[in-house]
Amino acid sequence: MAKQSTAPVLAENKMGTMPIGRLLVNMATPMIIAMLVQAMYNIVDSIYVSRISENAVTALSLAYPIQNLQIGFAIGIGVGVNALLSKSLGQHDQEQVDRSAGNGLLLALLGTVLFMAFGVFGARPYFELQSDVKETVEGGTIYTAIYCFFSLGIFVEVLGERLLQSTGRTMYTMITQGTGAVLNIILDPVFIFGWGPIEPMGMAGAAVATVIGQWVAALLAIVFNLKFNPEIRFSFRSLIPHRAVLTAVLVVGIPSIVMNGIGSVMNFGMNQILLGFYDTHGETPAGVFGIYFKLQSFFFMPLFGLNNATISILAYNYGARRPERIVKALKIACVSAVTFMLAGLAVFQLAPDLLLGIFDPSPHFLDLGRGALRTISLCFPLAAACIALGACFQALGNGIYSTVVSLCRQLFVLLPVAYLLSLSGRVELVWWAFPIAELMSLAATLFFFVRIYRQKIAPMLK
User: Fold this and answer.
1) Which residues, 6+ apart, have CB-to-CB distance to 199 below 8 Å?
2) What is the Cα–Cα distance from 332 to 349, expressed in whole angstroms?
3) How far apart are CA 47 and CA 45, in angstroms?
4) pLDDT digit string (tens) for 230-257?
5) Is the pTM of this model over 0.70?
6) Which of 51, 306, 324, 426 is the most buried (most CB within 10 A)?
7) What is the pLDDT of residues 53-68, one digit of tens each?
């Protein structure tokens, strides 16, 4: 008689049973709400900083590439863990589930060390490379140094949230992200301008408020995983490095990290191009670019929330060999994403002055910003389609496709086109590089989507 397996059998997760439309709403809504709160924090943070000075806004804009890279590392690790863990759940492989979580924590700790080192040794040279304005350099240096040195909070928060997402418990991620962002919003004016015994800290205060919010969110994510996520069992054994698990996580995670790294390089390059207009516009174009990124996050962050839910659903059903659910989830996600970003396009086209007015802009800042918002937002629907279709690249283990698309869009098209347009001496023409780059991105995304569909989805449908 064959020996029966004593390995625990995982119960069927809702990602394999709930109707796709309802499932996507069920999983994405909490994440979208959390992302909206996070986007609101991004905007409110910049509003408070704009009350310091326009140079402070520029410092925050120049700090963004480093901030984005740090979050990119955290998200990349989380995406890799999410994809492997969701697939392992679909395959009912408990040991692989536990190893995914434990090895993901090891990678998060490694990322923390790297950014702590940059905060100590690299922050000031980074800002001195970009600006000769003392207020910009000093403000940006202190903000980035604090943000990076205490980066453990964001790494633990993101990983903890991805573990909850991978098992379908997105309601808890809404609580962690929402709590951190709301706390950040409350603490910003306290530390920036001072209150009671707390002395005004300026840019350092903005960083302190951000770090506190991240650490509180991280602690909540730990508690929720330990108490309400029974499908993941944490143990010292799961922390032992496992080559196959680390490889699987990094195969998906590194492209995501690279994509965010590319985004940081793009932001850095665009800032250099825009600072080239210093003689005629000062540092205002770079400040406008930074404010645009804060404002567009109000539409892109919820889109990423929808995308995160889609990745988990696709990965689970790919592991469970249910192609019809994969196709249906992709269709609903694409229609929802494009519809949402059409609304974003309408807002940016019809109300740019209202959006920019909350940052107390000078007439010059408002004039430059108005043209930037209306021109760049033309790419919103195209970007939505790319992001929605790109979910299957990461979920099905082909994250390299996302990397190639991002490389082409941001480095091989956007920056060269922006530089060429800057040679005209007209900063308003530089913004057209974004719609041009997004058209190319959509073409590449469709090419790779057709390829992955034929290789991995279509054979399952037969």
Assistant:
1) none
2) 26
3) 5
4) 888 877 787 888 888 999 888 878 877 8
5) yes
6) 306
7) 889 988 998 998 899 8
